[in-house]
Structure formats: C-alpha cells, structure tokens
Amino acid sequence: MNFRFIPGLANFQGISRESARRDVAAGLSVAAVALPVGLAYSAMMGVPPVAGLWAAIAGMLAYAFFGSSRTLIVGPDTATCTLIAATLTGMALTTPEDRLLGATAIALTVGVGCLIARVLRLGVLANLLSRPVLIGYMAGVAITLATSQLSGLTGVGLRNSGLINPFLELSQRLSEIRLPTLFLGVASCVFLVAVKRWRPAWPAPILLVVATCLLSWLFNFPALGIAVVGDVPAGLPALSLPVRLDNVDGVLLGAAGVLVVSFSSGIVTARSFAARTGEHVDPNRELVGFGAANVAAGLFQGYVVTGADSRTAVGLVAGGSSPLVSISAAAALAVVVGLLSAPLYWLPQFALSAILLLAAASLFDWQAFKRLARISRIELAFGVLAAVGVVGFGVLQGVAVSVGATLLYAMYVSGNPRDALLGRLPGETVLGKLHLNPEARPVPGVVIWLFESSVWFFNADAFRRRAREVIEQAGAVRWFVLDAEAMTQADADAVEALYELKRVLDERGITLVVAGGHGKFREALQRSGLVNKIGQNKIFGSPEQAVEAIERWRQDAPDTLA
Length: 562
Known about the structure:
- The chain is mostly helical.
- It contains 22 helices and eight strands.
- The strands form two sheets. The chain has a six-stranded mixed beta sheet with strand order 4-3-5-6-7-8. The chain has a two-stranded antiparallel sheet with strand order 1-2.
- β6, α19 (492-507) and β7 form a beta-alpha-beta unit.
- The chain starts with 16 loop residues before the first helix and ends in a 6-residue tail after the last helix.
C-alpha cells in the first residue's frame, strides 16, 4: 500500500490483538493524564477549559494518521501554551471567547506553516536550537510558569508578572490571601509529590482532580470563596474557521514564534523517546504530523499541540507501541467531554495550579545544567542566557533570545574555526598536529597548515588572517601545503581568499600545494581556474602524499626545489 499521502498508516501495520489490547489500555492511562493537563493549560491561557481537551482530541487523532512516530503523543505543551498566553495578552484579547479565537487562529497558522516548511524541507532548521539553549529556555519557562501560579494558589488576582514583581505585589496584599485556598493548594502540591515519589505508577493528576471535585461538591467551595473552573460546555466542537479575528499581524507574529518553539520542543521529545524505542525520527516527516495535528486542533476550536513528553512517557510505561494509544486516548477524552463535563464545574482552580506548578518543576533540570558546566562553560552560558531571556524579558522575547543565541553561537564557531600546523611523527607515515604531539617535528622547508573548516564568506577573513600569520612565522620555507581535508564547500569569497593566498606565496617565492578537499570544494577549484594557477600536479589527496611528492621533487631537482 502507498502511504505517501497518509504516512501514518504504515505505523498500524503488524499490530497483533494482544498489542492492540495493551495499546487501548495505555491510551486510557494517557487520557487520565491529558484530562487535567488540558484543563490546567486552558486556565493558564485564559480560554474556556474544554478547549484544551478539544485540542488534545483533534491533535492526537490527526497525528495518529499523519505522524511518523509510532509512540509519540501530542497535546498542549507548557512552553507553547505559555508563549501563546503571552501573545494573546499582547494582542489585548481579554475575554475567554476572544482569546480562544486568537488561539485557534494561531494553531491553524502554525499547522499550515509546518506543512509549508515540509514542502521546503526546512526540518533541518530544528538543529539550530542547540540543547543548551533548549535547556535554558525550558528553565526560564518553568520559572515563569511557577510564579504565574501564585494567583491560583493564594486566591489573589495578581497583576504583575516576572520573577520578583509577583512576590512584591503579594507581600503588599497579604490580607487578601484566601487561607482555605492556600491551605488546599499546598496540600494538593504535597499530594502530587507524595504520589510521584511513593506510587509513581498511579495517575496522580487524575486522582487529584477526582478528589478535589468531590470535596468541592460536598463542601460547596464556591460558597466558601474558593474559585472553581465553572461551567464546561458539553459536547464535541463543531468544525469552524477563526474568521472573525482582526489582528492578523499579531497572529502571524505569534504563530512564527510558536511554530519555532513547538516544533523544536516536539522534535526534541520525539528524538528522545525514539532513542529509547529504536525508532528513527525524520524532522521533515514530523513536520507533516505536527502540521496535520495543529490544523485539526485549529479547525475544532483547540490550540497548538506538540510532542508531549509526560503523556508519551505514560503511554510507553503502560506498554503502548502504536498509534492506537493516541486513538484510544482521544476516544476516552471525547466520552468525558460528551457525557461527563458537568462534574468538571466543581474542579477548584488551586488543583489546576498545583498540577501546573509540578509540571514547571519537572521542566527545570538542574542535572542538565551541571552536565553543561562539566562539558563546556560556553554552552552553560548560552543555557543561562536563554533562561534569563525568558524570565527577564518575557516568553516571546525569550524565543528571540534563544534562536538568536543559537545562530550567533553557530556563526561564531563557523567563523572562527581551529587550525593547526602539522609535522612528521617519529616512525610514522602519517602527519600529526604539532601542538598536540610534542614528539612531532616540522618537515624541513615545508609548512603544512590545516584549516579545520570549509571557507565561506563569514570565515574568509579569518582564513586570510591566520594564513598570513602562519606565513610570517614560517621563516625561510619553499613549500606551503594547505591541508584542505575539512573543506567540502567553497563560495566566491573562498575562491578569492585562495587566490590571495596564492599571490602572497608567489611574492615570497613559496610554492602552494593543496592536499585533500572534497566534492564542491574541488569543483570550485576547477570552475574558478585555480587548478590551472596552482598546477594539477600540485593537488593531492592527502598531506602525506603532498610531502612525499615534495621530497621526490627535491631529490630530482635539488638546486631549484630545495
């Protein structure tokens, strides 16, 4: 069967009856986690609570048929939801209905953007977000999300955001704290931590939702001044287009940032779990799955979904191994929305805040920062910069800081590649780097210089500068061997830099020899005429071959080629 247009169908092949039963059971476990998480994210974003469930249902069904991974579960995500909430606030959308309209428009735009990116094969751009930046970004999101739960846990409607300002405002409004809300909120956090520690297999969020809904109904929490979710519309959403939105510029700008963050977060999640299950994840194919999931979520009055690490982990732990997990989870959520929405009226806001607070805590990975510190202080600095960008300047600006830091780091590394002088190792036929091998000795009368990168417009000046320094320090030599082993590409700036190197060497009476080089680098030498300038007989496959040829020439013409 041709799965070109519905690629996810290939993942349904080979499902036995026994594995199908396990997948359905795993889907129920996923739904148990997705239910409170969807409600909590909706509360955080200021949209109707049921929108998170609509997004999860539509997203999981679409990804099951169009996604490339057999085990990945999609759903609302902390980072993307926090970013959407900031975008909606920046668009001055205040009512839940208007905010939902904006969120659905962003989801639809993100979905279409993913599909366009797939046509353009832009999945490779996911590699621009390095892991240190993602770690720092998630840490910043965790801090921002945690501080935003102060209102739900205290019952005080705080107006300020950030790291310090909410606490300062709360300190000035201590008399407004609802002690029952605070006590029950802290108790909910303790319950979640205790279950996670001593009964990790139990669905702690769903247990908290059931228990707090029951207590809220028995003791009439609204009458006690404890905020609850309120009316949750029953029934499944109708297909609709978000056509009444006026702020198109705001939607496009917000969707651009959300697309980068949601796809990057999703692909990292997909790759992480693929490493455990032995799957291979193709970023371009994932763009189709994420695109279809977000188009479906936007059309059915939901918001952006992406790879959900907690729900994927639940599905794998429960034995899930196919897209049937997503389908059964979506079906279970649909039953809840269609038949059991009335009890959700009594769900207290502090319970949702407790769930989000624990989700924020799981995002902040201290061990990851410690590993970065051991590996590279530079990468640790980029992780901290990303976290500071989110906390200090806002989530939307934090995305720009994260992406910008990644690009700057990549350009810095590419623009300042390492280089080395090579020499002969005692008793060896291969050459070694002089600074790493104290026993290596320079070849008399020959400079062998390795430039550890292709030459491009952004590092051509570094190539010229370092080549001049090597020539100046070389002293009286007759041969300059350019080890181009790392060079696979060459643009116009590279060709001009090589021409300049040839002119400088000719002025000093030094012969240029090129060793190594691959593919388009060699093609550029041919098309530019550099091969004729250098001489075909002075281009070799390796620096060792170049040195051997130089020594033969010396023996054949000792007076002219000393």
